[in-house]
Every structure is written in structure tokens, then in C-alpha cells.
Write a structure and sequence with these properties.
This protein is an alpha+beta fold. The strands form 2 sheets. Strands 2-1-5-4-3 form a 5-stranded antiparallel sheet, sandwiched between helices. The protein has a two-stranded antiparallel sheet with strand order 6-7. Helix 8 crosses helix 10. The longest helix has 18 residues. The radius of gyration is 22 Å and the shape is elongated. It starts with a helix and ends with a strand.
Amino acid sequence: MSGNRFAEFLVARRAELRPADVGLPGAGRRRTPGLRREEVAVRAGVSVDYLARLEQGRDMNPSLAVVEALAGALLLDDAQRHHFGLLALTAGREERCPGADAPVRVVPESVEAIIRALDPTPAFVLGRGLTVLTGNRAWEEFAEPLGLLDHPGDLAYWVFRHETARRVLRNRAAVAEAFTAMLYRASTRWPADRELREIIDDLRQIPEFAQRWQPRLAAEPAPTPLRLEHPVHGTVTITAELLETQRDHTVVVWLPDRGLARERGLRLVRGDRAVNE
């Protein structure tokens, strides 16, 4: 896994832009997609050699003025600028970043009580690497027929390596993309977490995951629904609500569609009203 996300982002963003995006004429066929390095350097007011050193990770200490100039040259919006600045600040300084210590695996009793209280709605707690640290009885009952408990707690392993996921996930490609993006953002947020790096390095041995692994924005998109052919409950669509805790854990509540809710007597919350099915 690359140790310089700032360099990765620079290269990826330059490849995304087209000459027309920055008011340049299309100069015929290009050997590689995106803007040329010299085009970005001119727009940012830096030398081509300096930009090359940044993109190759040979210079990891750009000034604030350079970061701002590059953000403008690359047409970054506010969210992208924030992410870009964070990457510049932490490049080459991973040992000083959050996550240098081992992640906390023990779930506080207060959080355990919350997910137990949510039963019979499936709820569980995720660690940094999409690892389920604990779940309530409804989660285990729903997950077991899917094979989610065969490799205890590892959602990414299930999506990318478990044959059942390929059979039951009707939108597996979208879920695989969403999980890859979540892991990329986690690796940016906790770059010094060795356990997280090991999880990602292991997954990158899988060609599909490696192909999906690419620089991404830090902003969290809406959770991707899971469209399942459940061995017990049939066709089910699951949406998720995520709530972060103070210990870098995420409480995940799976909200099933009305058909499954009616079958299991669950209480659905939609907007400002609750519906008893």
C-alpha cells in the first residue's frame, strides 16, 4: 500500500481532468488520459520538475501556498480541498497520525446495551477495517444463513472471497465498490494503523479488489443498500444507518424493507414517524 496518499491523489486527479475542463484546446490524441504534468504546473505556478517530485513522493513537504495553488489548478471543490490539505499535512508523517496505536477492539458496555436494545432489528459494531466486533441476536440470526459468520466479523472478506456473497448479493458490484471506498477512507484517516494496513494488503492480493483500489475523496457517500436473495427471507433490500462512537467504532443498524419487517414484526423508523408493520 502506498505511503504517500498526497502523491496518489495528485496523479489520479490530473488523470481525471480533460483539457476542456481548464479551457485548453483538445490537442489531438494523447498517450495518457488527463492533463499533462506541464499543463498543471503552469496553472499552479510551479516547475514541472517540482510537480514531478511531488507526484513521485520525492518531496513530501509542500508549502500551504503550493497546496492551495495545486488545489486551484486541479479544480478541487471545498470537500476535495479539505481532503487534499489533510493528505499534504500527513504525507510522510504517518507515525504521528491518529491510529499509530493499536485499534480498540473492546466495545464499551454502553454501546453493547444499545445494540441489544435494538433487537429484533439487526445491529452490530464495526471496527476500522470493516470487522464486526459484536452484534445483537437479530444480526447473528440474519447473518448466519448468508455465511457472514463463517469468517467471523469480516465484511470485506465476505464480499470479495465468500462464494455465498456472489450468489445472494444482487448488487454485489456496487457493494464491493462501496466497501473498497470505505477501506480507502479508513486508511487515509488512520494511516499508521498496522492492523488496517494488513487487512488491506491482504485484500489487494485479490485482483477485483486491487482493480477497485484507487484514490478517493474523504467525504462519506450515502450507504449502499444491500439487495439480497436471503436463503431464509427471500428477496430483501437492506439500508444501513451508521453512527460513529468515540472509540473509532461504528454502530451499524440494518433497516430491512417492509416485506421483511412485516414478516419479523420489526419496528421501522422512517423520517419523523415510526411504523409498526
